[in-house]
Amino acid sequence: MVGGSVLPQTTRLLTPNNHGQGSEQRQHGQQGGHLPPPPPLLQSRWRSLEEFRQAHAQFIKLGQDCDPRCASSLITSCALSEWGSMEYAVSIFRRAAAPTTYDVNTLVRGHVLAGDPLAAVLLYKEMEEEGGFQADNFTFTFLLKACSRLAAAGEGQQLLISLYGRCGEVALAGAVFERMGTQRNAASWSALMAALTRAGRWAECLALYGRMKSEGCRAEESALGSVLVAAAHLGALEIGRRAHGCLLRSAAGWSSVIVQTSLIDMYMKCGNSERGMRVFGAMEEKNLWTYSAVISGLALHGDGEGALRVFAGMLTEGLRPDGAVYVGVLTACARRGMLAEGRRCFEMMRREHGVAATKQHYACMVDLLARAGKVEEAHELVLEMPEEPHDVVWRCLLSACRVHGKAGLGELAARKLMEMATGNAGDYLLLSNMYARAGRWEEAAAVRTAMVDGGLPQAAGTSAVEAAGTLHSFVSQDRSHPQNRRIYEMLRQVEWQLRFEGYSPDTSQSAVVDGDEEEKRRLLAGHSQKLAIAFGLISTHHGSPIRIVRNLRMCGDCHTYSKLVSKVFDWELVVREPGRFHRFKEGTCSCGDYW
């Protein structure tokens, strides 16, 4: 490794020697993991390795050795007792059906106490490579001790980066990373990228990935996993594709179910559901997370029928759906207006699969009913909830009241949201827009005034479009882009051509409720989505979709505008907003104007 590390290049666990009593007394103490410490009786029952072997044989004969609780107890006794054997403890670990973080911590600690810190570090690296392992603070405590005994400064610093990242101290993680200098290797880059991803700093993660490549360091699987997550959140399809290419060239990581599921999630969230489904179809092994990613992804794209087909296939495979899968299923039904199917799945969830309905499931059902125009029935369901409805439920109801003109019920939902004091300016905007849609301009203005007087920050609407692997973000009336002049020239040209198709700006969608019509038209013309479309038209090859990611729901005027652009310019637009995709093509939208 870089920096004169004493660790070999391989990260596979070497077969440990049979250790007797270590240099430190082996006493089991409280440590981290997913299981509580084993019962004291199981730790003190055996007085020698021979007695333990005989008892273990009985456990195997009875089929109890694969039970997670039993396996953890056996591993702990064998690894941390004075008569213990690390070689035998590792063999039990290898047989365990589902080793936990607790088990890994026990072995890491056992190796350190037995005077074999190298084996401790190699075990950790192996678990990290295999994926699915979640280290905790206890893991790092034992590993840092191992690194200190090995005098492996580089590995110790890498562990500190991971530890700081898990604690949310990204600045400290970055400081350690920068101090490493020439000792930085693929693992340290990966650790910092994981820290940035965990903190939701997606753009910084991708920037670090670019820096890593420019410095000639080859990304390992864990780094590419962070890139996929960041690309998915930002909608950076081209960057995600490149990461996919790197994985294909690195055959070792491509077959992992976790990696392939991450690829599906990335493609779905970046607007390429076809590619995501190709990855899914090629997978030899699928688990519950895989099906959940596909179903939720299809729900994002408004493909309710496809989501239900995948769900049916999952049931045929014998997999039992959990609450997360059902959130995806119910969301898919809501996005497509599949009322009967949604009701059937909600009942199946509770009666056939024994999944208790959570607030998320109720929110999906309220959304389904309300979107279908059954606003009163949705309200009745809210009142029947076993728990106090949370803000998402009332927000779904308020949004539907805005669409269907149910001002009275909308005011009730808004009042509930105000009582919760969520500090969400969007709730005020929904209520204001509901009044504006009903022509109640004074009340609409009063709500916006109350929002301002309350000091509630209104998130600026942004629209980001990817061009040549770089994300370009716009806000309303934005003039900061280097190609500002060309963008506004294209914007004027687009609006001029759309007028021949009968386009007229819908000024009821303007954020200004008390301005004149000309001012409203001017502000609508500079909406961030329209700027992103104009930039896409001058920077994207014709035939390639223009892909836009929004942080807020688009207004009705932008929706109409986008449909007409796709028709007049014969250009496909793919727009992601919170909770769903819109695919505009030949003058229509994939949502069927149901959103």
Explained architecture:
This protein has 595 residues and is mainly alpha-helical. Helices cover 62% and strands 5% of the residues. The chain is built from 30 helices and six strands. A six-stranded mixed sheet has the order 2-1-3-4-5-6, sandwiched between helices. Strand 5 (580-585) and strand 6 form a beta hairpin. The longest helix is centred in the last third of the chain and has 16 residues, at 484-499. The protein is globular, with a radius of gyration of 28 Å. The two termini are 53 Å apart. Mean pLDDT is 83; it is low at 1-44.
Please report the first level of CATH classification, the CATH class of the domain at 296-453: Mainly Alpha
Mean pLDDT over all positions: 83
The neighbouring-strand order within the major sheet is: 2-1-3-4-5-6
Shape: globular
Summed up, the helix count is 30
Structural class: mainly alpha
State the major sheet: 6 strands, mixed
CATH superfamily of the domain at 296-453: Tetratricopeptide repeat domain
Low-confidence stretches: 1-44
CATH topology of the domain at 296-453: Serine Threonine Protein Phosphatase 5, Tetratricopeptide repeat
How much helix, percentage-wise, in residues? 55-70%
Give the CA-CA distance, first to last residue: 53 Å
Structure summary, number of beta strands: 6
CATH architecture type of the domain at 296-453: Alpha Horseshoe
**Percent range for β-strand residues:** 5-15%
Q: Please state the CA-atom Rg, rounded to the nearest Å.
A: 28 Å
